[in-house]
Amino acid sequence: MPPIQTNDRILSSCKPQQNHAYCMHKAHRVMKYKSRTRRAKSTGQTLSPISGHTRTVSYLGLPPRFRNEPRPLLSFILRVLDGKHRQMVRQHLEYFLRFDFQIPTPEIERIQRRLRGDPSLFQCAVNGMISSMREMADMWIDSGKSRTEREVDFPTDRNVEDVLPGRACSLALLIYRSLLRSHPVYKEMRRDGSQTITETYPRFDPQSHWKLEDALQAHGTKWAAFYFSGLLDSPFSRHISRCDHCKAYFAYHRARLRKVKHGVFCLACERQSSVKRTEGSRNRRLDTAAKERIEWESRRKGPAPPEWIAEQVNKRHGTAFGRRWVSQNLEKILERVEALHNAKG
Ligand SMILES: [Zn+2]
Fold it and tell me: How far is the C-alpha of 278 from the C-alpha of 283, rounded, in Å?
């Protein structure tokens, strides 16, 4: 962001021999900028404790790489989770790292030289953010799942306190360790002098790590914790879900209030699973029909009447088939009858 300059300073730097049109243009630009900041301040935004500038980082008031959509934070997190947006994660992290490098120290200059010399080094931060975001999302989603039946999911039960099987700590402790314990909150001032407590964006802290790779990884984790804790504190925390089949993360339009008993599936897998479920129940009905036919034949002479077979299937499966269903599926039923006879030897 350009530094705020007053019109006086701009005009005083205008020497008589300079083109006056240029100065007017520059002054106009500054005035436009000033009116924009004035507008921002009048809406109640605070000034940054470091620069005194408003904290807005884009014209929408959203962090960079966020999109103007109904649930920007949730959608951003889903893009981080899918792992296909590595470039987006990198650009996001690099954008904020610039502010951490604003005050050059010998340590910062050494880090900058290493990052310039080996751009792939920054992938440590990208990996840290993606893998930690996945870990946190998994812990959160799994906290609502039944410990005994894998297909049962009850998002209302989700919590950050339980230590889940196979995990070393709770989600709350993970977020405390990676972010909250060291995350400063500032008192900030508005234009009129009134004050509020605001948290800052996570800062890069190379001091606490020996290796730059570890410091970058921890920085990515800190950002993941920053956004995921923001999601937990939002109305959309129970919208996020994970497909039991393909393991993709997705979001419902509304939080599910009922217990899911037959597994959670993304849209693509839901279609497949419903086809499978239909096939499964159809096969089970045909099996019953074949068994009943064999049963009839063992006790009486001649094939079982279709009405009787349909009645037995209806009793067992709660269906309402007539003789037509039996005649339509006769070939398949007879195949099963033969297979059962063969199995008996
Ligand atoms: Zn799926």
Answer: 9
